[in-house]
Model the fold of this input.
Amino acid sequence: MKNAVCALLLLAGCAKENGAAQAPSSATPRAQLPQAPATQATVSSNTDVYVIIDSAGTRLSDDATVLVPSPKEPGRGADAAHKRHGQNDLYLVPLASALTRAKAAARLGTRLRVLVGKDVGYRVLIEALYTAGQHEVGEFELCEETCGARSLVFRPPRVGDLRGPPEHETLNLSVILVADGIAVKTSFGNIAPGCESGVGPGVAIPKRDGAYDLAALGACAQRLEAQAPAFASEEDVVLTAAASVPFSQVMDVALTLLGPTKSLFSRVTFGVAK
Done:
């Protein structure tokens, strides 16, 4: 799993209870930033602001001005002009500045809602989450379009979550969405294609008819958990995706891994691929 996920960011998430189953911002003057269409502007139902990420870009709910425009190439994330240390950085300076102002005005709560368009790429999402995570937000509510059944509540790992070596062998399931399908890794290696012949090279669950095979993923996770009694008690699974994978597909996989009423895993952790 260490080879699959960068330690720079891990965000733990779980299904909502009612949903079973970084360069200076002055490089782009605020007046020149694009405006989101009026129909997309969302008014918060309370005093706290929330983050909106859609086809126009990333902004806060109390202002239609786009803070970070959508990249021309979703797989690259936001343009380097909006970051502190170049293209590979995750920290979005304009978003960070807006969140700092919201916090100073007592409009940034301990839980931050993030509304994400279904076509938003994974890298764009992770950059926004990482930036927001630097503002002492204790919990996030991640929603697809609107906060209905397709949503996750998660919190960043805390120091108290870090423990020493496990007392017994662990599964450490890690799922990675790539162009050809779903790669599955565990503490004992990469799972071979088909998820039935143990460890080996390749993608465990190839795409079926051009889409991620969610049924096969659920069956694979159940099969791996059943290999040892201790595995069945593990609550966490790491989900990582290629930069351009749409959020709707990421949510499909996350909800599949949680299973109906969190019957597979209790928490999904979002990672950053190397």
